[in-house]
Amino acid sequence: MSTPARPHRSIFEPPAIGQMSLATKIVLYSVLIGWSLFVLFPVYWLLITSFKEATAVNEGPFFIPWVDFQPSLHAWKELFVIDYADTLRAYFNSIIISLAATALSVLVGSMAAYALSRVEYAPNLITILFFVALLALVAVSVGVWGIDWRLAAAVGVALFFFLARAVGNLYQVRLQNGDILFWIISQRILAPIVVVVPIYMMFQSVRMLDTHLAIILTYTVVNMPIVVWLMYDFFNSIPRDLEESAQLDGATMIGIFREIVLPLSRAGLAATTLLVMILSWNEYLLALFLSTSRAQTMPILVAAMNAGERGILWWTMSVAIIVMIIPVVVLAVILQKYISKGLLVGAVKG
Amino acid sequence: MPNQTEETRGTTKTISIRDLNKFYGSFHALKDFSIDVEAGEFLVLLGPSGCGKSTALRMIAGLESISSGTLQIGEQDATNVLPKYRDIAMVFQSYALYPHKTVAENIGFPLKVAKTPKAEMDAAVRAAAEQVELGELLDRLPGQLSGGQRQRVALARAIIRRPSVFLMDEPLSNLDAKLRGNMRAELKRMQSELGITTIYVTHDQIEAMTLAHRVAIMKDGELQQLATPKEVYSQPANLFVAGFMGSPPMNFLEGGVVNGEFGTEESRFALPGAPDTAHAVVGFRPEDCTLVAPGAGLVDARVYTVEMTGDLVLVTLELGGAHLVVKMDKDFEIDTDVTAGIAVQPDNLFLFDGNSGDRVDWTGPRS
Description:
Helix content of chain A: 55-70%
Order of helices and strands of chain A: HHHHHHHHHHHHHHH
CATH topology of the largest domain in chain B: Rossmann fold
Structural class of chain B: alpha+beta
Largest interface: A-B, 26 and 32 residues
CATH topology of the largest domain in chain A: MetI-like fold
Number of domains of chain B: 2
Number of strands of chain A: 0
CATH class of the largest domain in chain A: Mainly Alpha
Structural class of chain A: mainly alpha
Shape of chain A: flat
Distance between the termini of chain B: 52 Å
Helix content of chain B: 10-25%
CATH superfamily of the largest domain in chain A: MetI-like
Mean pLDDT of chain A: 84
Shape of chain B: elongated
CATH class of the largest domain in chain B: Alpha Beta
Oligomer: heterodimer
Radius of gyration of chain B: 25 Å
CATH architecture of the largest domain in chain B: 3-Layer(aba) Sandwich
């Protein structure tokens, strides 16, 4: 054997492939191949189903094209030639909405996370309670008692400042960054189904149903907690010394963010972007409520295919799902090189 | 060096600190801290962890706000000035190198943010790298360097723009013992060549003694003594300083003084001229005393352990509850559990007030 056996090998370090016995190799590779087949089979099934005629699906199962069944392009034609307008609209809707919602939530969320990790906040609990109470009061007075909203808002703002100044300083119970962070993530604990009806009514009242903006804003808000949570942890792992050193060397706030913080958070930003993008891309429930036709996204289009008068259209559904997978895979491949470990090696100590 | 050093930069400055205070909520981290640092001086802030020395340094840098008091750098009142306008360079304990930038980019960063022309910057980077002997490593990333090399990069980044003040926060504490000794010597040499006012924070008394023009010893946010290393060692202001400086630290005996005689529960000896007090502490350094036959010295004590360190023998003796250490020659031999006398020259005895801890200027046998 060319490589000498190392005197010490930790328990969890597997032996090199070359040092395994044949039996071990066979077992190892069978397990790996078996698992790969298990994982890849649905994708394969999707791919062949997209080329099947209705009869080939209904009389199946058939597994091998040209042997079991004769592949046809009819489903692809239906989606991209006959109904191309609907398909492409849903496709571009999905792309626009996911990209915009991802960009917005990562931009705003990471700024919030950076602030939470670097600045110590101490908001007064009483002031916050005043704000919430007055907000409710204004809402009720406009909605129930029919007071002019401008008047109600003006009185509410005036009352808030008066109460905050007069009473706020008497009670010094203050929240800390941890409380703010928990409050933000708690927004995600709530299942979307709980808030979907109020959100629907809200957008209905401002006549924004079935618009891109409504879905983008909703996705942004829904994904923001995840961005804040992940990026907070990530920014915390960047040593503060680096920023302080740059500060002393004369760099501006913007300069520090651009030269030091941003390059070092690339991995975190890439991972977060990918996650949020996938969540937005696959989101179904909120889109179902907020869109009807113009702003319809891919998941809705796919779901609609099993509810038509022609029965479940497995073949067109498969085509739609395949084209839906592609952008996410492309994005994952692009971002993968940024998601590397060890970026902070050498920053501090040894 | 770049032309910009001519007018504003490179002129080393005095630092005047007046009644500096720092509060974190109700915690009083720094108490009425006042020091005048001369231009070109190497001042060391020394103290155990949590004594406020790093807080003081960070306040001078502008990384912590000043709760009260004033800070003057040169002619400028810097109390509320942003860090970047203070013309200060700081070396952090962690080195704070930018891991995604090469050594050259790290060293050149202060010039880059000052928008120095490229050619001028490259020349300055090379010169600074030469000065700390990093010439061949300019294209490496910090992650590919050893601890000592990272330390040098941090130093080069600090010296490149010739600041008027250097601040160093335990810069050598992450290095191994041998490297630390080398870097200490280099640091001292570099500071005296550049002649830049330097404030250096450490908990290591050897670093303080060897590097400093003056040492400021701190405890619990308060300045205990500000003096030259020699003075701090030979005329400690109080019990804390006496016990902190020296290795092993000073021996202490607690007791009282009556009619020029110092007495503990176990023994008594003459301290002619010492003022009467009910509670006093007598101190003497391990290197200032020797072991003699029982009864022939100041006090008698039982030998507790004998440690051979190579160049000398440390004998620890037990008297009452206290341990006393005596430094003896390397070929000295004695058994444990035997009784021996400890002899001290009278002018090597320090007397401290037992209540305040302050050293009593006792002009008896001294003078």
